[in-house]
Each structure stands twice: as C-alpha cells, then as structure tokens.
User: Fold these one by one.
Assistant:
Number 1:
Amino acid sequence: MRREGKYFLKHKKVKWKKGSAEKIFLKNKSIDVITSASSFHWYDKKKCLKEFARILKKDGYLILAWNPRVTKLSTPEKKIEKMLKGKYNIKNRISSGKKINKKVLIKAHPNFYEPSYGISSFWDKIIYSKVIKKFKKNKNFYFIDKPLFNFKLLNKISKNCVLVTHHGTVLFEGASFGFKTICSKATFFDKKFKVSNFWSNKSEYEKLLNLNQNRLNSSSKNDLLFLFYKTFIDDFSCFGKKVWENIIAKEVGINAKKFYAKIKDFSRMGKIQESQKYLNKVVGKKEDKIILKISKNIKII
C-alpha cells in the first residue's frame, strides 16, 4: 500500500516510513490523527491498538473507514470511478478483501514431452498432471497439456497479457515480442539487467501479480539484446561451444546432449552421489586436464 501511495503522491510533500500497524516507528504521543481506510480488519487488533494508543496525542483521533462501493446509488462515487478509469487507467477496481478476477493460461514446458530428457520429463509430466487435477475446477485457469513452442503461442495472445515465469529464456522470447514479464531474481543473469519485473519472496511476488499491466515495467531493449548475445551467441554461453558439458563431452568422446541429460536426471532426482560417481567414471584420468580447460573458459557477465 505504501508503494501505491508513493506512486500516486510522488509530487506531493509526503514523508514515507517503513513499518506496520503492529510496529510503528514513531515517538510516543507524537501524532494528531491516525487513519485506516478499508484495512483495519487485516491488522492484529490487540497489538495495533496498543501502538495507536502509544503514538496518539492526548486529544488525537483514530479514524477507521470502509468503502463498500455501490456506484449505481451514489453520484460522487460515479464521478470517482470515472476519474480513476480515465485519468489513472485503473480498470479492475475492487473492494478490499476481494480477489481480482484474472484469467490465467498455464503452459507446460516443451521439455516435459521430450523423450531425450528421460526420467526428468517423465516426472515433470506427472507433477504437471497433478497441478491440472488440483486446479481444473477453477473457471479462470486454462491449461495447455501438450507441447507447444512459445513463439506460436505468443503470436496468438494479446499484448495485454503478462507473462509469468520462475526464470529462464522464455522471458527473453516474451520481451522480444513486446510482452511485460514477471520473473524470479533467482535466474542465471544479474537483476541489474532491466528485462523483467523481479521478485525475491512471496510478498514481492504477490504485489507484482496484483499490479495492473500498465504499472509493470517494460524490458530495456539494450539489456535484452546484450543478454540475447551472451546467452545464445557467445562461445562462453550455456549454448556455446565452450560451455562446461561440451568441454567434458569432447575430451572423453561422448555425445554432449546425452551427457547433459544424464547429469540433469541425477540432479532432479536429488541423487548427488550417483551423479558424482557417473562423472568420475566418465572423466577418469582426464580430470586435471578437464578442470584446467574449464577454468580457462569461465567468463563473468
């Protein structure tokens, strides 16, 4: 809510402080008026009232307000609604505590249906089927349960859609098509690259999901092109010829794709020791040579 206030009152002389209703970082008996609009029901009543009593002056006021809008019966509320939709482009204005009625299209990763990924794709499909079963009764959820390339889907859906991904190159695809995206900070590139709207915890994630599409940041074209090059074209990229699995595969004379799939299978199943044994078996006496070669092919972006 503080974030919303800063946005709409950025040109006003308002001081903003971090805190919560239960822990207010203000001096005792220092406040004339406390207001709480459509939010008091979310607080811990006992703790917040104790804080309110602490910071309020002797003759101070506590104002608690709710706004159950019935715009059809109120001329002022009709004008407010018109102003919000016209001036601020707020389309989905709702009362506190109600869920936003957003439609969600959920797409499986194409690798779920790729046989070369072995046990990984097998378990991915099982987990995805359980997710579908759990949420299939939700009328706002639509599932795609067959392989479909991202670019085919992006060519069909509206630019008003927001793309949500945990991490990965899918946000590059979406951003290059002009879509706004939401992505975890736990990805393979630094958050300083302005190519998505990033979150690092549940609270930040929920805030981004509840923002109107026009309030989300668009991708920086320069940052996007730089990451495209470093990810797909540069020799040191995860798709380049100097990536670590390609170096190992080349040195020991095995297929790089199959080698990577095997390592990934062990990793996804949590079998770290089995993965290490397999790696030791493949590498054999060439370990020092391979380590030296990989160390010379590390590039920080």
Number 2:
Amino acid sequence: MAEFILKIPREKLKGAILITGFRGFGMVGYLLTKYAAQALNARKVGFILPETEVPPMLIIEEDGPGFPYEVYYTENPKTVFILNRAMPDREEWTPYTESLASFAYEVGIKLAVLAGGLSREYMPEDDKYGYRWIGNTYFLREGGRLDAPQMEEGLGVMGPLATLYIFLEYYEIPSVIVLPYSMVEEVDYDAVLRGLKVLSQIIGVELKAPALEEAAERQKALLMKLAEMSGSGEESPRKREGGAIYM
C-alpha cells in the first residue's frame, strides 16, 4: 500500500470532500484538481509515497517543490485534494488507487469527486451540458444527481480513474466521476473550465480561476483561427460506436 505522509492530524479530514483526477484526456483530471485547490486557497499538508517506485520528478511551483503525488486541504469548505502530478505506471494503478480509497475510508471522507476527460467525438450534436457523469451506488442512494445525463450505455472509463472508482464502491464511499467533453491529445482548458463549474455546483461554492478562464479564451480563439485557415470550421465526423473513451 502507498504511504501517506501528513503534516496535520488525520482526524481533521473526517467529513471532508475528496477531489482528485489523473493526467488523462485533455489533462482534465489533473488540472481540474489543481485549479480547484488554488481557487479554495488549499494548503499543502502532505504527500504520498507509492508502494513500489517513486516517479523521478520534482516541479517548482508557487508553494515550493512539488512532489509527484501530494495532498492539499482547506477547511472552507472542508475539502481534500489529491494532486497527481505524475501518472502512475500501469502496474501501480491497482495498488495506488486502492491506497487512495483505503485512505478515504480511514479518514472518513463523506464524498469523493473524481474528474477526467471524455472524448469530444462522443458528444451529441444537440448536447447543451458539455459533460457526462457516473455516480456509484452510494452517491445515487443518497439522492445524488447532476444536471447532465449520466454517461451513455456502451461507453466506459479506463485507467486509474476506473480502478479508483471501483475501490471507492468497495469501501462504500459516495462517489461521482465528472467527465467534461475534451480534446484527447491536447490540454483542453475549456473542458477544465466546464468541469470547474460542475464542481462548484457539487460542493456549493463558486470556484473562480481567472487564469484558467484566460487560457480557455486564448485556446478558443486559436482553434477558431486554425479552423478558418484550414478552410472549414466543421469538426471531424463524430464516432457513434461504443467503447472506452476515457484513459
């Protein structure tokens, strides 16, 4: 199991909301976690050592050196963020995500919100929400609902987000995956922004991220310019087959 090194008593985390995601499509899971933590002025309270290999990376950020896997916390509202700067190796997906779910159970997390990107190729042409979601047994049992429809039959989730969801179900922790439609191979700031708005509704606090909004606007303008240069503003044909569309 991974080891959680915390600078605050674990008892303080009881009843908190957990927010996390990974570096999947559009970098949505990672960036949504990061911008949400910044919006709530969460402070770094610890880090995580994986069971086997620690990714050899260190990133200097505003609050100092950033480790591959870190824990942030804020009391208003009571929220824990697991910031996954690194993507666990495939053989680490199961032990790492089981450790996250076990930690959530041990400290008494009341709700887990997982974030990831959903390929835009599967977005219905008349969609007005910009995302889909998946709620586990305990989220739905407590009456949890979001505005958009749940993910359609035949689609699915792969990678550590899926194994984390499964372990959270095992530990009977109410959980929901938020999946904004996103570009697959590029960072999608607009998808992250949509996800942030959904997260605001879930936790009941408006999350403001001016830098993210500016990045999303710049990216939109650039994409429109590229579309004009290519002679067409139309997107590529949308796929309709089922399959796994989050990784």
Number 3:
Amino acid sequence: MVERPGAGAALTVGRPLSEFSTNSSVGHCLAQRLRKVAGRSIDFMTKSRCANLVERYLRTRGRRYFRGQHDREYFFVASARPRRLHVHLEISPPHDDVLIIRVDPGCFFPAADRPWLAHFSDTWNRRDRHVTAIVHASCDPQRIGVVARRSQWIRDSVSFEDFASFVDRAIADATEFFGELSPVVELPTTTRTLLRDAG
C-alpha cells in the first residue's frame, strides 16, 4: 500500500450520526432515471475493490455497522476506554481506490481549549503515527472537535490481510490518541493552564 499524494485533500469533516441511514437502497424513480442515460442500462451498483475490502473487514471483525447516505460510507462504534469512539470508513468520492478513516470521540470541546488541544495534537503528529490528529471547527462557534484520520491508496493487488492490518493499526493508534487525550480533558481549565505554563 502506498499513500497517494494529495489524497488527504479529499478528506471530509465527520457528520452527525443523524445523517446516517441503514437503508442504502436506491429509490425506484431514481433507478429508472439512471438507467435511461444514452439509452443504455448502466449498473451503478458495482462495488469497487476497496468497498468489497471494507465490507469484508467489517464482517470478519464482527462489527455491527451502518451505511451512510451514500454506499461509500460506513460507520461503527468502537468500545474504548474511557469512552466509545465513532469510526468512519469512507471510500473517497472522486477516487474509489482511496480509503479515508476518521475516528472521533463523538463529543466536542470548548472553543477556549483550542490552543492546548492544537498543541496536544501537534505533539502527537510529530511522533509519525498511523493517524493524524486534527482540531477542527464545528457549527457551534463555542465548540471545536478533534478527529484522528488517515487516507490511503488501496492498490488492486493488496491482500485482504494487509488491508485489515492497515485498518486495525489506524484504529488502534486513534484509540491510543484519544486515551492519552482523555485524562487531560478531564482536568479543570485552570489546572490545564497552570500545567502548561509550568514547563
């Protein structure tokens, strides 16, 4: 597996669970319109190799998962300490051979904590781990989010074992990142400020 340059640009910010649906069927009217293009019957349901690998991974790992609004999105909840993590596996819309993994804690942080969260994420990212930690804005200006993510070009020749190992490592690193973040998050803001200034 080789990381495709610029693949990170295709990453998207996580969506709330309410936008996900377990119904991935195509409406009858829409399906008819799609098949009438240029008078030919086109099979839009053909899955990419990457999508097949993702679904096989989820089945073999025994994950109960949800599909997103589009067939290229998958979501499941991973049990981790001290809190559960939301794991999103998405095949990049413009490139069906690029897998995007996003893991977040399913909660937001006060916007006032942006400086230390950014510092914490930068420190993590300097370790050259399997996921990159990113602090991002939310629709509420008083809240910010943190996501651990990775994008990877999935070659046609990749074995299932290599694919599964890659996804496992990314999720394990994201779990470790949020595990290290949680004890710091639980400290009161004034304590965090004193600890940050002490060093």
